[in-house]
Amino acid sequence: MVSSIVVYGGSGALGRAIVSTFIKKQWSVISVDFSANPEATTNVLLERGDSLEEQGKRVLGGVVGQVDAIVCVAGGWAGGNAASSDLFATSELTWKQSVHSSLVAAHLASKTLKPDGILTLTGAFPAQKGTPFMIGYGMAKAAVHQLVASLAGPDSGLPATAKVNAILPVTLDTPMNRSGMPNADFSSWTPCEEVAETIHGWATKAVPFTSGKLVEIVTKDSKTTYTEK
Q1: How many CA atoms lie within 13 A of 21 on its CB side?
Q2: pLDDT for the residue 4
Q3: CATH label of the domain that carries residue 195
Q4: Which of 49, 142, 163, 194 is most enclosed, with most CB atoms within 10 A?
């Protein structure tokens, strides 16, 4: 039987890497995003004007049957402190991008994830402490961290033997990041393909992990380490 995965944010840089990795390994891949990923087996398309409830209904209606893994890598970055003129707009946007998508992924997992399946969400390394220069973003990612802890507890709604965690990258090596920071030290950035391979290891149980943990992803001198917190 073919294994299956839902990639929430399947048209973003990390999402595309995950879709590509699992397709190459002959999984059935459902991409959820605002635009289609042509490499995916199936696409569930979102509408930008959807409320949280509408987005949830759209995703639940597009995923048929049971799946082995759900990975939510939807999100976006926005800076700004409490004095920023666009604080409210950017904070609302990052909340929708990270928290709404993670919540829908969690609800989807409660309905479609196989008993021994995995759910991986996306937090952020800096959001483990204060983020004064990116308040809205830090709040949203910290909420995702809390969601992981809640989902790993008893009576969370997930299948009893399913496992949940979150990846906490520092900086991913994406075209957008390279364009925005052309003089950065790229040897300290994590390749998306490497993260995708690690998630595949979790999904196939070739790489063990502890449910409820946040996984710090730190790259130094082009070598990446994964540390559970």
Answers
A1: 24
A2: 98
A3: 3.40.50.720
A4: 163
DSSP 208-220: ---TT-EEEEEEE
CA atoms in the 13 A half-sphere facing the CB of 194 = 16
Q: What is the pLDDT of residues 33-69, one digit of tens each?
A: 999 999 999 999 999 999 999 999 999 999 999 999 9
> Domain residues for 45?
4-228
Which position among 137, 189, 202, 209 bears the catalytic label?
137
Amino acid identity, position 128:
Q
| Active-site annotation holds for 8 | no
Q: How many domains does the chain have?
A: 1
Reported pTM: 0.95
Q: Provide the sign of the torsion angle of the four alpha carbons 147, 148, 153, 154, taken in this order.
A: positive
